[in-house]
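Section 3.1: Structural characterization of target chains.
Under the original work plan, the team committed to producing a structural model for every single-chain target entering the pipeline before any wet-lab resources were allocated. The record below documents one such target. The sequence was received from the expression subgroup and is listed exactly as submitted; it comprises 470 residues.
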Amino acid sequence: MKHFTLKHFSLLFVFFIGTTTFAQTELKGKVADFLTFQPIESASVYIENTTIGSITNADGNFVLKVPQQHLQDTLVISSIGYKSFKIVISEFENGSDIFLEEDVASLDEVVIVADPRPTTGNGIVEKAIEKLPKNLPEKAYLQKGFLRHKERNKKEYKWLIESAITIYDSSYAAGAKDNLQINVDETRKSYDLRDIDSLFTYSAYLKSMNTKSGNLNSVKTSSLVEAIKWNDSRVNGLENLFKGKLNLVRNSNVTGALLGKNMLEKHQFALDTILVDNGRKLYKIKIEKGADFVGLNTPNIYNEGFEPKGWIYIYYDNYAIKKVEYELVAASDVQKKRSKSLFDTQTIHKLVITYKDYDGKMYPNYIYYETPKLVNTGDRSSDRIKTEAEPGFDKDEQYYYTIQEILFSDIIQDSELINQELQQNNWSADIFSSKPYNESFWKNYNVLLESKEEEKLIQDLSKRASLYKE
């Protein structure tokens, strides 16, 4: 538990009054396409001119906790390619369906202008990267967020963690490796029913430590736990996600960045069309492969030989990056064979990052990251076909799909609050360590709403976890 000075508590009370127990109104609704009636996933739902917001789930549903003092403010529901829906929060009919109409700008109308500006996808993306120092925060800030980490094989959920996190970032100009910190504040649902090939993990762990494996038949349980934790962190740790190459926009100014210097050697960008987001025009640009393969240079993991795919959305007026959809697909012969053999898929990294415009700067709004993680290696020798034919072997349980979703909310710019938080937080990014459940905290915290399918799978996981404990 954190201990605050009286002055610190007073400041926090003023800033976070919207999250106190006595001042919350919960809004619920569903967002769908006006013509097709299909749900719109990942639509933004937020209070205008604030950082309070959420997004819709796969069913188009949302839930948003609104502080009482904002009931006369405007609720905005927006999605790229649609006209926004706006209503005074006190007039919103809870549980209603909201239908968004398509809104597309003319590509010819926008491109043919008198101002000298890039007209190709490559030129527009280069301009957006050039403008990052102006469009990203130039001062230190804290940001609160909700993390859902889940792992499943092709049959069922095996692991679930939900956490409240805090991010500290000193500025875009400073490298994330030394100037970005993550803390796991609270944890709620946490179920772990994974089947771990512990000896394989332990062997890889010892190799990373330059230690000989020795006799694997007499390994201490504590050593296996350390090895498994090491494997979790190197593949799915928050530090990797925020400080590594896949944080494409934030880390584009570091050596070897995917969207940094020489990015056109590995990527090509094609202008597709012009869309509209909440009344602002933005470029929709297709990400294609360049002349060279893309790699992540991950220690002790072969993470090379990919080609990029996806989309990048850039505001027309100031070249700020609004959204990136990015995939790394096996492309080299070695990576194709490895991906097919170990994971039965060619898409090894799938990433979505969206940003919100607040005070003229772009802050992270939502992150989705998916990757397969090897769990049961099985027999990788020449006898593999024979092994797979043995009773009980199930290829669908060989690896897990690992998914991390992060929804960001409060942005804190007050330097005094930031300094006090930095001094008093232990700043641990370890999402895998258990914490006591804080019911009052979670009662008033905005979280990602689960889809109906997810809710059922998670309920099944929680039931099996209870039986396992018994």
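The longest strand covers residues 361-374.
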